[in-house]
Design brief:
Blueprint (H helix, E strand, L loop, with lengths): L3 H23 L1 H4 L2 H31 L2 H22 L7 H28 E2 L2 E2 L13 H6 L1
């Protein structure tokens, strides 16, 4: 995470300057009064915190599950966003094809979760987790062990 955030910033800043820089500097909304500047900076910081939280949650999800689970979670997020838009924004309607697409996506997510639950139930027994295929259990690594490297 410590390496990804600066790389993301270095990658995005040139594009932000190229596409929005001149328009932003000429805008009276940013530098006309201190209050508008502070409000603008607040919303920029708020967006940055949300983006950081999203990236952090994706790292956590992949660390504890898999990339496929992240993909399924992304599809679920898109479905949720579409449903909220249809419910909350007047004039948004779903066609029959859109509804069928949502139903297929929801069925796919449900099927994936069902398979994942069955797999987890079969590998977990009352005696604890099944031994690894190599015949040994992995060694737990602590933060102090990592710092020593």
């Amino acid at each position: 995470m410590a390496f990804v955030a600066p790389c993301m910033a270095i990658t995005l800043v040139p594009f932000a300057i190229m596409f929005e820089g001149a328009k932003l500097l000429r805008s009276p909304l940013l530098f006309s009064q201190l209050s508008t500047t502070l409000v603008s900076l607040f919303w920029v910081a708020f967006g940055a915190v949300l983006a950081f939280g999203l990236t952090l949650s994706e790292f956590w999800l992949v660390k504890h599950t898999s990339g496929l689970t992240l993909s399924v979670a992304g599809i679920a997020k898109e479905i949720f966003t579409i449903m909220i838009a249809v419910i909350c924004v007047p004039g948004n309607h779903l066609s029959t094809v859109n509804v069928l697409g949502l139903l297929v996506s929801i069925a796919g997510i449900a099927y994936y979760n069902m398979i994942k639950l069955k797999k987890n139930a079969s590998t977990t027994s009352p005696q604890g987790p099944a031994p690894s295929k190599q015949g040994y259990e992995p060694v737990a690594v602590t933060e102090t062990d990592i710092d020593r490297l």
